[in-house]
Amino acid sequence: MINPKKEIKRKIDKPKASSVAALRRMQAAKPKNTAPEVALRSLIHHKGFRYRIDTRPLRELNRRADIVFRKIKVAIYVDGCFWHGCLLHGTQAKANAAYWSFKIKQNQERDEDTTKILEKAGWKVIRVWEHEDPAKASEKICRVIRKRRSQLKNDF
Fold first, then answer.
1. Using CA atoms, how far apart are residues 96 and 125, in angstroms rounded to an integer?
2. Within-domain flag for 7
3. Residue 12 and residue 102 in contact, taking contact as beta carbons nearer than 8 Å
């Protein structure tokens, strides 16, 4: 008997690349240290803030954030428009469309779940799209960091 409370996730087998060009694009996609991540980190670093990169905010949660300020509990994710389904810039794959549609939906569900888990544990989660202006995003992030730091000082 199936437990209705348990969420059953359908798995689609990973398809083969539709062409040599598609295979090269997939192999070139970096999971970390992407240009938008590096630009954002550089701006935050130049403002004097220090952080961890590509690490788990919670040790028991097997999910990594792009930038982590562990002491003040701030986790930053730089989401790629294709991989996370950006409404402005996300594109629909033509080859293997069912697989990619399902994969992106899974990514969005995992992102939402991760945010809920971290917020429940007292973390501030900031999500930045890869197309966002790094200077504006870094300003927003630095404001949050300063606020969290001052709240931490006032708690003692």
1. 32
2. no
3. yes
Q: Is the pTM of this model over 0.70?
A: yes
Buried b (16+ CB within 10 A) or exposed e, 72-85: bbbbbbbbbbbbbb
Of the candidate ranges 5-14, 30-39, 73-82, the one whose mean pLDDT is the lowest: 5-14
110 Cβ contact partners less than 8 Å away, ≥ 6 residues apart: 63
Question: How many Å apart are CA 149 and CA 73, to the nearest integer?
Answer: 10
Using the predicted structure, report yes or no on whether residue 4 has a pLDDT greater than 70: no
- Structural domain for 78, as ranges: 25-154
Neighbour-count burial for 5-26, b at 16+ CB within 10 Å, e otherwise: eeeeeeeeeeeeeeeeeeeeee
pLDDT tens-digit readout, 117-152: 999 999 999 999 999 999 999 999 999 999 999 988
CATH number at residue 40: 3.40.960.10
Neighbouring CB atoms inside 10 A of 37's CB total 22
